[in-house]
């Protein structure tokens, strides 16, 4: 009997994945829950595991883009193949009989599917499996690590039993897609060590696991930053996995190799060769799934919203003077610095309550108005831009806003944001000024209806009370969806933010 394996659902709004690589070849025998291929989406990479033991028949080749639910491969279930070892019973193997009292199968198969991990997230990628195909898992035990384009989280077992991996490391799945199965069992663990295993057998099994030479997500990130391939690093983790420590200590070998391969210096008495100093070579690289999806979504926002941008400028001198006067006392009392984000957040929440359409969202043919202000803040991380959310920002003090910004930014850069911290924002603030941006038109963070862009502060000549003075000025931009926000509302909102920032006392008095 042949079992069809299809691309599982990996996340909300994710409709297709790409086959990154196959860990097995066509015709190979595979164990149940053994990693057989790696899939990637625009947000993450995850592994697909075999749903049964048998002979693998590959339907999709490496590089193919498949829709969710498309046939990935078939597994021909063959009698005589042990699902935990992948070998036939006739093959010579060290006997591993389970002792009396081990777990007993109930006959029930529990399907574990990709959970809903956040608003607007339609797919996730399997970063790595903590368990191997056929391992015994306990209820609520962490069995895999899954990551989206915004956060990384643990997947836990929903029952006790034997694990059957469906999606391999690197595989990209939509939300609700089948990620693994658990053969529900009663009693103790079924993981029993082979009787008197030979050292050669143990060593061989360690060298042939999927983890060998495979970098953990943290290690892969460090290696990518150093431009070092996994083949240049020896792993000291379990079964040879490359750990974060291995990646931190790794040194790129290419410079030494290039140095050793240099040709001898041409003698001085030889006429020098004239070489062209300008290169016209071209390098082509396949666009990643992440970049392709980002491209589609940016175009989608531009096409599906009536997005406009209005600009204004803010004299930052009052805020700068206020910070200089009280920043030391603020730091000493609250143990956090007084930055610009707390002023902008408080100003925006005040203006949002006065102009609720800017805080609203379109849902089908209805407009949803929120009484609260959940402000998303854009944070740049090594993986890209993420937008954690400050809940009920309108009710927080300056000190609470600064601490929340610091907490979320730190977790974002460490890749430790939870899904709950990434979803549900009603308005977004992004600060391109930290990178030197003078003016830009930020793109709306759907399904929100508006986003405020901050820019760099530049001293410019301005007229105040009929005199030309030099003041620290900042351009601010509000991009908004004209379907829900009219010009009057957008301009009035931005003018109100300007008033509050140029006279911070208004924020304290509520006027």
Write up what this structure looks like.
The protein is an alpha+beta fold and 511 residues long. It has 3 domains: 2-193, Beta Barrel (OB fold (Dihydrolipoamide Acetyltransferase, E2P)), CATH 2.40.50.100; 202-252, E3-binding domain (Dihydrolipoamide Transferase), CATH 4.10.320.10; 307-509, Chloramphenicol acetyltransferase-like domain (Chloramphenicol Acetyltransferase). The chain contains 10 helices and 27 strands. β12 (142-147) and β13 form a beta hairpin. The chain is globular and about 90 Å long. The relative contact order is 0.11.
Summarize the structure.
The chain is an alpha+beta fold and 511 residues long. The protein has helices spanning 199-207, 217-226, 244-249, 254-260, 289-304, 317-334, 340-354, 398-413, 487-502, 505-509; strands spanning 2-6, 16-22, 29-30, 35-40, 45-49, 54-58, 65-67, 71-76, 104-113, 123-129, 136-137, 142-147, 152-156, 161-165, 167-169, 172-174, 178-186, 307-315, 361-363, 366-368, 375-377, 379-381, 384-386, 389-390, 427-431, 450-464, 467-481.
